[in-house]
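Researcher: Next sequence.
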Amino acid sequence: MLYRNLMLIDDDEEDQEIFNAALKQVSAEAKCVNYSDAAKALNALDSSKEHPDVIFLDLNMPIMNGQQFLMEIKKNEALKNIPIIIFSTSSHAATIELTKQMGAHDFITKPDDFDVLKNILKRLVKN
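Model: Next structure:
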């Protein structure tokens, strides 16, 4: 499935900027809403009637980490079917397996190369 309406939850503003720059280069149609705080993102999702097509979720964040967010969203009937793609610097096999068991749709280790990120997004978003 190709996504058009994205949400990125990541407390690193530089990572948000890189993600959005890559997205802009690969798709004229895709839009992304950014949150630095997973708890605020969860509240916004819970109070909105419109939801993103997919959520890209960092794991290592203060206040509410990615695993806590994933656990909470999967309990919510209105939100549990939104695909969650873990987007983290982690590449630990146990972490990948755990998040998939918790309901993550996919796990992408943040690439160091901008072109690699663009290629990843090309496969996931509408052009």
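Model: The mean pLDDT is 96. Strands lie at 5-9, 31-35, 54-57, 84-88, 106-109.
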